[in-house]
Amino acid sequence: MRKKTIRDVDVQGKRVFVRVDFNVPLDDGRIADDRRIREALPTITLLREHRARTILASHLGRPQGKVDDTLRLDSVAKRLGELLGAEVRKLQDCIGPEVEAAVAAMKDGDVVLLENLRFHKGEEANDLEFAPALARLADLYVNDAFGTAHRAHASTVGIAKLLPAVAGLLLEKELNYLSSALENPNRPFVAVLGGKKVSDKIGVIRNLLTKSDALLIGGAMSYTFLKAKGFEVGKSLCEDDKLDLARSLMTDAGKRRLAFHLPEDVVVADRFAEDAAYKTVPAEAIPKDWMGMDIGSHTAATYAKVIRDAMTVMWNGPMGVFEMPPFARGTRAVAEAMAQSKGVTIVGGGDSAAAVEQEGLANQMTHVSTGGGASLEFLEGKELPGVAVLADR
Ligand code: ADP
Ligand code: MG
Prior knowledge:
The protein is an alpha/beta fold and 393 residues long.
């Protein structure tokens, strides 16, 4: 990697501010999934082993710059303490004299967790007072929050301009997997793209058109492509203002001699509901009053074969409305084919990662990205501001 990491710097006895992504899903105040906490353990463990004073900071939810007692990080600190087998003191704020005093009292090897960064407006605004107030707490800055690296906030960019700044091990891992797939993939390199909207994924499609050997399209966005080809799509989600764009992307794919796959058959439903009537029809024969909910079984089999034959697979976006069991089959087929593949398999995108978790296949992927929006921007070929600001090797 081009950026320095915590392995490249001396942290012994230093106060190290680590931006982590502890934005965990909550269910009635309980942590519904602690994956994001577990993913931060390698960095925290390395810092403890090297006797650093570790100051962890994260946001949780969207408190909009105000204290919200339901979004405090106490339960996160407790869970982290259990995982580490060490005490993690949770502070009542993330800046100010009391926080500074608590940090001054830390001993080598200690870990504290600051309160939710987004209780302060200055965090998302990256304002000129909040970032220095954070920076005062530490000697060194570490970014290990891949999921927020695409945001230029005080804790991701502001503070990194005020302190020596390096990457944590999770950030390093994310960047290594995603960039090796994009820059230097083992071929054939297959990209599987689905999800809600073509407009959300234009940048990703454009970038992957230039890099992959085959594109497999599914999800709601396939109907925009099918309509652009002149097919009836009934009541399927479709972006009518993106038809020209869809045509130009398909023309581009043709010029590059890339295999551009659209669904051959689709599962249609009579309404958008789990208990709707549904049937499988050819993609060119979607009935007027029905809507496309998933790729059909022929398409799923074709896509699964292309995936199994690939040496690198990058997947972003579910193939159908996977939250409803009757329409999860296409997404499951893709996830299973990736799990069986001998190649490098990478999943990016929040809902795609959730779908892989739902199928219990996350452990069988080479890498499931922890950053939804950040992984999308990375796949678009953009440099993430939270990464750009870190010291080069
Ligand atoms: P990701 O978060 O992985 O980038 P998106 O947010 O783009 O993925 O899309 C995920 C959403 O797309 C899911 O909620 C899923 O239900 C929805 N979706 C997929 N296929 C369809 C479809 N045919 N009709 C309506 N919604 C769909
Ligand atoms: Mg999503």
